[in-house]
């Protein structure tokens, strides 16, 4: 008998019919003699609707209440799945994050899981009950409802698998696994059989939303093998696991894109020590993460300082930056929401030169201008005009020989 943690995403839970399909899959694994903990997301589209409501009611929704609102989508899913399983004759029980409890810090809308006491779940499992946990949500030590950031149910599942030392952790989604790039924008994308934690961390943080980045951090830290697969068929999916020799032989294993960032440029800033900290610290004080940063060479003692933030943080970041710009006597602020970040990722890059050059040449050939660049040991990212996203992904996919054919 094994302890199996399965997570079903929004599309898999997207309608009554699909929830029935999930219940059948769960029942099949349970009937084979396994203990089951199921994590579910809100039905597809529901979280977006809740976010839109929050943004409609006021310009800057209160952080605490925002989490109370968006956590509600998952409440519907756990109840429906539990009802369905019970109607099929199984013992099942639904849990909110706080009921488990999934204990997090207090960073509303991007809370981190700190601890998951499993006494209640263990007791249910012993009793033959299928436990169904709401993904995406938790509770902080003051008793406030928290959420883990968009796509956070993946993290709920992997954290539960780690906390309970599960034998199997499966993430069921609407594609067959992790592909060389998003199969929904590139028909030639190929399924990857095995991907290392580090590569998946980069792919996830660079926009491949098939797994939330924090779920991969948990998987790596606690050595959880994560099997990403489809809830619509029985095909083997992708194993996210420890790095091995075969993986290093591949130069670029995947390409990610992210249209979810926006750019803010503070222009005509006096080029003095401490200016970067002056611009960026009010943002970090407001819990806003900055991603790419570029500071131009100065001309006549003035420089331009450009950075990107997520679109969700954009309005707030812009308001804060406008204030700072006044204080430091910057000439003007420019903003651009029509950008996209394209990244190539592969552990093989560590030992091969020229990968970045090939990327830049490939984009240049298509007349795609690069606005910002950042690199790490196993990735190169560039910011380009959003309208070239699909084209850039496709030509790079081809140039690095990733196509299925
Ligand atoms: P779920 O609702 O199951 O959590 P998501 O929509 O969050 O599903 O993630 C699955 C989606 O991730 C796919 O439909 C696909 O469009 C997208 N995706 C982006 N990059 C990749 C990739 N490299 N491999 C697979 N899917 C990807
Ligand atoms: N329902 C949440 C979201 O849409 C969490 C998740 O799907 O993982 O972001
Ligand atoms: Mg997801």
Pick out its properties.
405 residues; alpha/beta; Carbamate kinase; eight-stranded mixed beta sheet; four-stranded antiparallel beta sheet; 13 helices; 35% helix; binds adenosine-5'-diphosphate; binds aspartic acid; binds magnesium ion
Short description:
The chain is 35% helix and 25% strand. By secondary structure, the protein is of the alpha/beta class.
Outline the structure in words.
- The chain has 405 residues and is of the alpha/beta class.
- It has a domain at 3-174: Acetylglutamate kinase-like (Carbamate kinase).
- Helix content is 35%, strand content 25%.
- An 8-stranded mixed β-sheet has the order 3-6-2-1-9-11-12-10, sandwiched between helices. A 4-stranded antiparallel β-sheet has the order 13-18-20-19, with helices on both faces.
- A hairpin with a 2-residue loop joins strand 19 (372-376) and strand 20.
- The chain starts with a strand and ends in a 6-residue tail after the last helix.
- The model has no long low-confidence stretch (mean pLDDT 95).
- Magnesium ion binds next to loops.
């Amino acid at each position: 008998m094994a302890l199996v943690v399965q997570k079903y995403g929004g599309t898999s839970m997207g309608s009554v019919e699909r929830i029935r399909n999930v219940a059948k899959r769960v029942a099949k694994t349970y009937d084979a003699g396994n203990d089951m903990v199921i994590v579910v997301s809100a039905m597809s589209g529901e979280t977006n609707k809740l976010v839109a409501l929050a943004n409609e009611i006021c310009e800057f929704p209160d952080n605490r209440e925002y989490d109370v609102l968006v956590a509600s989508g998952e409440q519907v899913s756990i109840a429906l799945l539990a009802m369905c399983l019970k109607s099929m004759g199984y013992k099942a029980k639904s849990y909110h994050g706080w009921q488990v409890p999934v204990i997090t810090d207090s960073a509303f809308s991007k809370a981190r899981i700190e601890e998951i006491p499993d006494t209640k779940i263990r007791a249910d499992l012993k009793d033959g009950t299928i436990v169904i946990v709401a993904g995406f949500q938790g509770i902080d030590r003051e008793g406030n409802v928290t959420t883990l950031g968009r796509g956070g149910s993946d993290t709920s599942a992997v954290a539960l698998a780690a906390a309970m030392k599960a034998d199997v952790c499966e993430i069921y989604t609407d594609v067959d696994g992790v592909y060389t790039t998003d199969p929904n924008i590139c028909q030639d994308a190929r399924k990857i059989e095995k991907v290392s934690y580090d590569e998946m961390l980069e792919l996830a943080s660079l926009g491949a939303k098939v797994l939330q980045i924090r779920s991969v951090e948990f998987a790596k830290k606690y050595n959880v093998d994560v099997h990403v697969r489809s809830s619509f068929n029985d095909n083997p999916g992708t194993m996210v696991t420890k790095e091995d020799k075969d993986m290093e032989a591949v130069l670029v294993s995947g390409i990610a894109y992210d249209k979810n960032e926006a750019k803010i440029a503070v222009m005509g800033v006096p080029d003095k020590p401490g200016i970067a900290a002056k611009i960026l610290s009010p943002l970090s004080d407001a819990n806003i993460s900055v991603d790419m940063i570029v500071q131009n060479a100065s001309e006549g003692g003035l420089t331009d300082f450009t950075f990107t933030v997520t679109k969700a943080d954009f309005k707030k970041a812009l308001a804060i930056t406008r204030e700072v710009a006044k204080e430091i006597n910057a000439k003007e602020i420019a903003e651009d929401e029509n950008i996209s970040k394209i990244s190539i990722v592969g552990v093989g890059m560590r030992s091969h030169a020229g990968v970045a050059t090939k990327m830049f040449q490939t984009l240049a050939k298509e007349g795609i201008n690069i606005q910002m660049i950042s690199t790490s040991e196993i990735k190169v990212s560039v910011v380009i005009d959003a309208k070239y996203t699909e084209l850039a992904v496709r030509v790079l996919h081809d140039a690095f020989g990733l196509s299925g054919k």
